Amino acid sequence: MISDVLGVQPVAPGYQTFTVDPHPGTLRWAQGAVPTPYGQITVRWERNGPRLSVTVTVPPQATAFITLPNGHHATLPGGPRGTERTFTG
What we know:
Blueprint: H1 2-6, E1 8-10, E2 17-20, E3 29-36, E4 39-48, E5 51-58, E6 63-67, E7 73-77, E8 83-88
Parallel strand pairs: 2-6
Antiparallel strand pairs: 1-2, 3-4, 4-5, 5-8, 6-7
């Protein structure tokens, strides 16, 4: 299931807050989008050796809680216009 591979799960109704916890398995990369009332969430991740690079786009007025496979955590607020950021771990 795409939500498992990308790791996008709602925490609050309408995905106003959501988690991104990718489960790459044996895949080398994945990309997808989740439509929400706040705008589109996009996630793209790519494996580079033992590291995983994850790019998350958070829509306006939403917040993402991101977990990387190495155990690092980050919070990414969408703010008034949305935001995109890449994390490596």
